[in-house]
Every structure is written in structure tokens, then in C-alpha cells.
TrEMBL record:
Family statement: Belongs to the ATPase B chain family.
Coiled coil: 71-98
Note: In plastids the F-type ATPase is also known as CF(1)CF(0).
Organism the protein comes from: Bongardia chrysogonum
Entry protein name: ATP synthase subunit b, chloroplastic
Presence of the UniProt keyword Ion transport in the record: yes
InterPro entries: ATP_synth_b/b'su_bac/chlpt
Amino acid sequence: MKNVTDSFVSLGHWPSAGSFGFNTDILATNPINLSVVLGVLIFFGKGVLSDLLDNRKQRILNTIRNSEELRRGAVERLEKSRTRLRKVEKEAEDYIVNGYQEIEREKLNLRNSIGQNLERLENYKNETIQFEQQRAINQVRQRVFQQALQGALGTLNNCLNNELHLRTISANIGMFGAMKEITD
């Protein structure tokens, strides 16, 4: 107890109020000043600091919520875009496959059409050749027949009398008419 009373006694020995000075003893003044400042700060600043921290916490939580909502929206848009991309890629692949199939189909149709046209042209050519051959044969027959007839008529004119000559001409005209009907 002596230490406690000594400290009160020492309080009574303070210099008078008329003299003011700085206490340069750092070890004695700083812990007291610091404890007073900290006490005042804790007592009065506790509510302000608590409010500041709560506001900051709410802003951080709101920012996190907003970020999560934005992230979810971005993920949904990304999935929709991926789905649309897969659909477009599938359609493009279908167009390519269908295009190649259509090209092959058209090539086959063109080949078939060309083959049919060539076959028709060949048939037409053969028919034309046969027709022209037949016509040429008929013309040659007619000329041969006319020449033979003229030769026969010439011989008959020299050898026959008028009555026989008229009967032969009538018979030949009848035969010639019959042959003409057969050839037509």
C-alpha cells in the first residue's frame, strides 16, 4: 500500500497551475494518451465504424449478387448461343451433304439424258440412212425400169406392127400402174 499512497502524495507535489510545461517523459505520457484516445475512439467510433463496415459489407454483398446474376445471364446466353451454333452447323452440314447429293443426282440425270439423246440421234441417223438407201434403191429401180421399158419399146416399135404395138403398150402401162401402186 505504500506505493499507492506514494503516488497520491506525489500528486500533491505537482507544480502549481501557474507554470505550464511539457512533460518530456515519453514512457509516462504516451501510454496514458494512447489509452485515452483509444478509449474515446472505441466508445464514440464503435457505432460509426460498425455502420461503415455494415455499409461496406452490404455493398460487397450486392456487388456479389449482381455479379452472380450477370454470370448466370451470361452462362444462359452462352448456352443459347452454343445451341444456336450447333443448330446452324448442323444446317450447314445438311446443306453441304444435300448439295453434294444434288450435284451427283444432276450429274447422273445429265449422263442419262445425254445417253438417251445420243441413242435417239443414232436411231434417227440409222432411220435416215435406211430411208435414203431405200429411196436411192427405188430411184435406181425406176431408172432401170424406165430404161428397160424404153429399150423394149424401141425394140417393139421396130419389130411390131401398129395393132400389136398398141396392145403391148396397153399391157405395159397396166403393169407399170400395178408396180407403181406396189411401190407407193
